[in-house]
Structure formats: structure tokens, C-alpha cells
Amino acid sequence: MSLDERFAIMRSIGLESIDEDDVMRLLDKKVAPVCYVWCDPCPSVHIAQGIMMVINVRKMVKAGCRVKILMADWFARMQNKLDGDLTKIRTIGFYMIEIWKAVGLELNGVEVIWLSDEINSHSDEYWALVMDIFRNNTLRTIIRCCGIVDRFMLNREIIGSYDPKNVTASTLFTPCVHCAGILFQKADIWLLSMDHEEELHDKLIREYCKGMKRENRPIILSHNKLPNLIEHPEYGKNGDPAWAIFMEDREVNVSDKLSRAFCPAKVAEGNPCLEYIKYIVFPWFGYFEVLRKEENGGSRMFENMEELITDYESGALHAAEVKLALIEALSKILKPVHDHFANNCEAKNLEEEAMWYVTNYILYTKLDPWLSYSLCSKI
Questions:
Q1: What distance in Å separates the CA atoms of residue 285 and residue 147, rounded to the nearest whole number?
Q2: How far apart are CA 322 and CA 336, in angstroms?
Q3: What CA–CA distance (Å, rounded) separates 26 from 24?
Q4: For residues 77 and 72, what is the distance between their CA atoms, to the nearest angstrom?
Q5: Residue 15 confidence class, pLDDT cut points 50, 70, 90
């Protein structure tokens, strides 16, 4: 495979332009660069973690990369997920690995490592790096990376989900611990989601490496983040599971969520249903099929996103038709996962153990049951 072909594969992940030249130089220099993927153990697995991540890992392997998935169990413990119980968090991690296996991820070519093991094995090096990052950043910078609203902050566009009065001290550790976890690994490339928090952490990494004149700074690849399916995203923060599709969703759940999803007629830009098609359906199947009766124009097979957008914006393809076809496509993708956990005794026991932990955590903390879908803070 040529250098240009390998770069094109990596570019398709959603690479931001700031690191494009660095990626090209890296691929030219190394036949098998080491790529890490950060993953937070989450009780309810967002389809981005279940499918998009598998798609991107396959792309990196195809480009010749050595891929390592870092399960950030210790990071989840610090955020007090599942009461900070590392055993429960690890169970959730193994549950996620089982989901990846169910959708066809070949783990023979991918190494899964645990952050807690890495920290325990190299604690002197890791904690020295954490403290050095703290020492070389101001409190205002760290607060900004946490997304906490501060009336003294210059950038008033940063709106966090925290009440400053209720912020625990561990929250302020999050950016530095996250950045140290990234810099601590000897990685050539890190794959992170393109969300607000990780974008800020990426900037923190860049500034730290620049200020310390640190060599071998890892390249940060940011994959695209799926949008909120709800027209008014603030409702999703109240625990409404309709804001996204999860790997646990059955066809009836997918149908219910997409029937309520925001999908403005003849508008492609910012349309969450079309984003799901672009980043999930097309990469998975290579096409998007809309089944229609002959009197309604007959079925249509779209080979690329451009064709789909053209028909949709012209009105030749209706929102209701898009939703029905998307329900069918996502249900096909998720069915092997449901079958795997239904027919494999070991996988079924793991799922039951994971869900038992989640259920008891919700009851113990008196959370709304809908929030079982929202225990993962990063997607």
C-alpha cells in the first residue's frame, strides 16, 4: 500500500488539518506506527463507541498501524463512576470488549490494555508527569479544561454542566490525569473523540509539550462526534435516552427514538439522521438503501453521501423515508450484538453482571432510571 493510500485511510477518520503534515511524515517514517485509542468504560455503550470505534480501528489496522485500546478504568474510578469500584468498572470494560467482538472486531491484531495496570507498573514516572503538568499550568487553565463556568474566565462561551459549588476536587485533577495518561504512553498517534472536553485537553497537551520543549509529542486524531438526535439537546441532559442510539437498543427502541428524531425536510446541514447515515451506515455497509413502493418512486440505492444529500435537499427523498431506512440499517447492525449475548452463555452472564452493577448503582444513588443511558460522560 502506498504512502498516499495509507494517509487517505487515516484522513478518513476525521483528522483535523492541524496535524495532517505530521501524520504524513509519520507514515513515511514508520511502517507500523503505534496508535492508541482512549476508551472510558461505560454501562450503556453509545453506538459511536460500539460501531464508529470499530470502524476507525479497522481503518488504522488497514493503514499498517499497531493499535492499542486503552481502557481508562482508573480514570473512571477517579470520576466516581459506579462508586469508584474498580472491580465493577472493569466488568463494564470487559462487557464493552464483548460488544466489539460481537460486531466483528478482530482482537488478534488489537491489544487491549488497562490504565490502572499501566499506572501501577510505572507509578513513579506517571505521577511525576501528572505533577509536572499541574506545576506548569495555572488554576484558570485547569478550570477552563474542566468546562466549569467561572465568572472570571475570559472565554464566556464555555458552558459546563457543573455547579461550581458542587465540584469535587477530583474534577480539577481530570485534565492533568487525562493528559498524563496520553503522554505517559509511548504512542505515535492517539484517537480521541471530537468533543469539547477532549479538544481542550488536546490544547493542554500541545501547550505543555511546547512549553517543556518535549519531543515526540503524540499526534492527536479527532474522529467526528455524532450529534444529539433531539431537536433541543438540553432535554437529553435530563436523562431522556432518545438523545442517542445505544448498542443495547432493540429494534423497537431504535424505531421509537428515530421516529422522534430531529430531521428537518430538505435540510442536510446539521441533520442528525443524515449524520448517523454518513458516519455509521455508509462506512459499515458501503451503501444506504431506501425501500419504497413503485408508486412512490421505487426503491433507491445510494452509493455515497453526495447522492443522498442531493435527493434529500431537492425533496425527492422525504424525512419519513430516511428515518424508516435508517431504522432498518441500524437494526441490522445491532442484531448480531443482541444475538451474541442471547446465545453465548459466557457473554450473557457478563452482560447480566454488568447490568446488575448498573441497576444497583442507580437504586443506591436514587438516580432516575433513564440515567442508566447517561452514566458515560465521554462519547
A1: 37
A2: 23
A3: 5
A4: 9
A5: low
